[in-house]
Amino acid sequence: MAYHQFKRLIVALCLFTCLSCEHKEVAPGKLWADATRLHNNHKLAALTDLSELQQRVLQFLDEPDNPERLLTAQNAWRNAHTSFLQVKFLIPPQMSEVDAWPIEPGFLDVLPAYPESGIVSDLTLEITATVLRHQHQFTDPTEAALGFHAIEFLIFSRPSTDFLVSEDPKTDRRRKILELVTALLVEDLSLKLGKLIVNPMSTEEQLHQLMTLLEYSASHLYGESLQLVVDPHSKFSGQSRKNLLTQIKIIEQLIFDPVNLGSKLVQLNDTLTRDITHTVREIITLLESNGSDAEISEMCSRLLNGLDHQLRSFTSQLAPEIN
Asked: Which pLDDT score, from 0 to 100, does residue 21 have?
């Protein structure tokens, strides 16, 4: 008993020392500027990766019988989606036309059990931007005709032979859908990347806004972790766990370098700041482990739920200061 109490004391002291060393003093007014700089760096990468994705999809459609073309298109999708997850923190959260998931594949294309399903089979629908935008989530959020995961389904779950030029009208429509959905994604996301959440005026407002965004992100990731086994984010590409890791690492970058939000938080409540730091690093270690998806989902959702509560406690403490 005494040994375990001593061990816990050592761990607590190490965390306190870690926080003291890593959380450098941040000058008033720098928090939002540093967060925006981080966002801009990721935005440049996202725009580059989006352009690369569009180019690789077009190259695949030119040579669908070339396995290398498909592989490069798939890798370009992974890179572009990861870049999007890194940049979405400071842009408005309405993302239904960009990152809708889970999706119902049969709404978009044929399935083995339903060979006449989907927009691909409905010859009464013209394949245009207007039609796809109208059809997207027409009666249900899973009815995706736009966004990353419509593209993901097409290039990861369908054989490349389904895109070979032929006299089958479904093949021609499928090719048009893939090309158009990719172009619309580039258009929609490029527009959204130009819209930052409004810059608060005072240092207190900056801190409160960043904490509110962190809380929103943790709550969203908690929901995503619960679906890791049943309806995982990016299930066709097998990127679901990496998605969680990418997003929690953005939270880590905000708390530590390069934004150093923790340096301000530790002045307000050092105990709660240490708890948040410890939870974030536990989640990262867990997601980088070799556990099964079921194990990861259970443990990660529990940690993210705790992080959500920790961040909410901080946000509620900060609210009176800006009123």
From this structure: 47
Could you tell me which of 54, 51, 46, 48 has the C-alpha nearest to residue 87? 46
Burial of residue 272 (CB within 10 Å: 0-12, 13-18, 19+) is: middle
Strand partners of residue 114: 111
Structural domain including 318 reads 200-322
Please work out, in degrees rounded to the nearest 5, the angle formed at the alpha carbon of residue 102 by the alpha carbons of 193 and 287: 80
Q: Structure pTM? A: 0.89
Task: Give the contacts of 272 (CB within 8 A, at least 6 positions apart).
Answer: 265, 310, 313, 314
For residue 68, what are the contacts with CB-CB under 8 A and spacing of at least 6?
none
CA–CA separation, 279 and 276 (whole Å): 5
Pair 185, 41 in one domain: yes
Q: Is the pLDDT of residue 287 over 60?
A: yes
Q: What is the pLDDT of residues 107-152, one digit of tens each?
A: 999 999 999 999 999 999 999 999 999 999 999 999 999 999 999 9
Asked whether residue 275 falls in the same domain as residue 150, the answer is no
Q: Are residues 102 and 141 in the same domain?
A: yes
The enclosing H or E element of 211 equals helix 203-226
Question: 125 and 259 in one domain?
Answer: no
CB 121 within 8 A of CB 170: yes
Q: How far apart are CA 37 and CA 253, in angstroms?
A: 12
189 & 204 share domain: no
Q: Angle 128-130-131 (CA atoms, 0-180°, nearest 5)?
A: 65
pLDDT score recorded for residue 316 = 86
CA dihedral sign, ordered 211, 91, 108, 149: negative
